User: What shape does this take?
Amino acid sequence: MTTLEWQETRNTLAQRKRWVIKIGSALLTNDGRGLNLAGMTSWVNQIAALLEQGHEVVLVSSGSVAEGMVRLGWKKRPESVHQLQAAAAIGQMGLIQTYETLFEKHSRITAQILLTHDDLSNRKRYLNARSTLRTLLDLGVVPVINENDTVATDEIKFGDNDTLAALVANLVEADLLVILTDQQGLFTADPRSNPDATLIHQGQALDPQYAAMAGDGGALGRGGMITKVRAAKLAARSGTDTVIVGGRFDDVISRVHAGELLGTLLLAGKEPEAARKQWIAGHLQVHGELVLDAGAVMALRSGGRSLLPIGVTAVKGDFERGQLVVCKDEQGVVVAKGLVNYCAKDAVRIIRTPTAKIENILGFIAEEEIIHRDNLVVT
Assistant: This one.
């Protein structure tokens, strides 16, 4: 593409109404030296300007653990979950107080929201979170979201706030996700070790080549460029475009809004999916696995069909009715994700069985399908 074509696309960003903006730990804490008050002031001022122009903004902010480490005098990120949780509890106090004070100067109300993976993997809690966020946006409030590190464990944590930001973008059906990082954007190689690396101005979020180009995270953050690429791919499921850009650029948010060619724009390249399928696709916790025969794989991929018991050759894991499972072909390639109509114990009994015989085997029939097409997302 030409610079002119890139510019034409960038000029459309000002038309995106609902923005999710994510700010990473390295930026928020001056690479671990305490809260970056000057930077936070600038970002808040720019967000306030977006709000004045009629935009809605959800802010996803890292920094609680890093700020807690500074307050505790820790130089190295601890490995103990309980120490991380303690640092998060301490750091979150300073983080949210600072945001509240800065937004008050613009007569803007803020709301603190702490999420765990369970909040977005449970359908009822997902809908509650979505309703709350939409209400806050309707009221002109700025939601400030962080992972609830104080209670998160290895089983339920997101792992990085880039993923959290993408899931929030799905949750609120955002028009644009802006990830502020300590790098200028996505490069063809890691610019810290390869002087020949060049900045990628624009691409498709679903293009697999970008994952290979991404580098690892630093000492403070749990993510790196690879998590930002994955976040862009996840955000694309709800039709959200993503800008990955250096947060240390002067007036970076305002300049992105103005269409300046800063950072990397990764386009979703697809229309938003149904809200329920966004939620299914955004699941990170899988409770089991179904192995499909070739006929079932073809039916799912080409026909938009439901998954019937007769097409399932094996059941793995221990799951309950309504939980998320992954569907794989007989070579182990992931084909789809979906919410099952039968628990693992019953599913084992009815695989390779015509629908008409389900009731004879189980003594009841919950549904004709193991997974209905409305609860299925083909990958």
About this structure: Residues 3-278 form a domain with the Carbamate kinase fold (CATH 3.40.1160.10).
